[in-house]
Amino acid sequence: MSHRVRIEQPILGNDLDGIPHTWDAVAIKWANIRPLSGKEYQQAQQMQESTTHTIKTHFLAGADSSMRLVHGERIFDVESVLNMDERNRFTIWRCVEET
């Protein structure tokens, strides 16, 4: 794993819109960041997902799709989280990179 990512969870404000006003860092992990290939992206679009990247980190208990991952200036919104092979060794994050 060659990239350092910060995993953040939202801190919801008091507004009715539910949009987070700030983010709280919960962990910093080494990660592999992999953009989807053209074929994978096309298949994701057919399933009406907008996933652009998969990110693999060491396991993080409590990981969920409300979180985001930050690598430098890049922000990845999490669409889904998988416990790879359900062995609590690696977490696979399916993400959309903010533009």
Order of helices and strands: EEHEEEE
Strand order of the largest sheet: 1-2-3-6-5-4
User: What gross morphology would you assign?
Assistant: globular
Level of helix content?
A: under 10%
Total tally of structural domains: 1
Mind telling me the CATH class? Answer: Mainly Beta
Oligomer: single chain
* Beta-strand content bin: over 45%
- Stretches with pLDDT under 50, minimum 5 residues: none
Task: Give the rounded overall mean pLDDT.
Answer: 87
- Secondary structure tally: strands: 6
CATH architecture grouping: Beta Barrel
Class derived from helix and strand content: mainly beta
Q: At the third CATH level, what is the topology name?
A: Thrombin, subunit H
CATH superfamily: Bacteriophage SPP1 head-tail adaptor protein
Distance from N terminus to C terminus (CA atoms, Å) equals: 24 Å
Largest beta-sheet characterization = 6 strands, antiparallel, barrel
What value does the Rg take, in angstroms?
14 Å
Number of helices: 1
Give a written overview of the molecule.
The protein has 99 residues and is mainly beta. The protein has one domain: Beta Barrel (Thrombin, subunit H), CATH 2.40.10. 9% of the residues lie in helices and 55% in strands. It is built from one helix and six strands; from the N terminus they run E-E-H-E-E-E-E. A six-stranded antiparallel β-barrel has the order 1-2-3-6-5-4. A hairpin with a 2-residue loop joins strand 4 (68-71) and strand 5. It is globular. The two termini are 24 Å apart.
